[in-house]
Amino acid sequence: MKIMPCPLNGPRNISEFAYGGEVSDLPAPDCDNETWIDYVYLENNLAGIVREWWYHTPTAFWFIAERDTRSDEILKTYPASDVYRDRVDFTPPRGASKAKE
Fold this sequence. Notes:
Layout: E1 3-6, E2 10-13, E3 17-22, H1 33-41, E4 49-56, E5 61-68, E6 73-79
Antiparallel strand pairs: 1-2, 3-4, 4-5, 5-6
């Protein structure tokens, strides 16, 4: 059984988690569509130590894990708030409809 050290709940069975992709910096909000497509759909898939998003499904908690992809060893986990402290507000594109309130 593989154990993931969750920063909120402590060591838990890996079956309680979902992989969320590589951690990468957001492109500028006004960048072109090709840059956004690359950000959303392409991954570097590096061999070595990478930072990844993980989600603890029972508690709906997102966090970051550092994992060595060569050995699948989880080296460190921490809350995303340790890295991302500012909230990014986006302006909806023209013609986008507002959700009903």
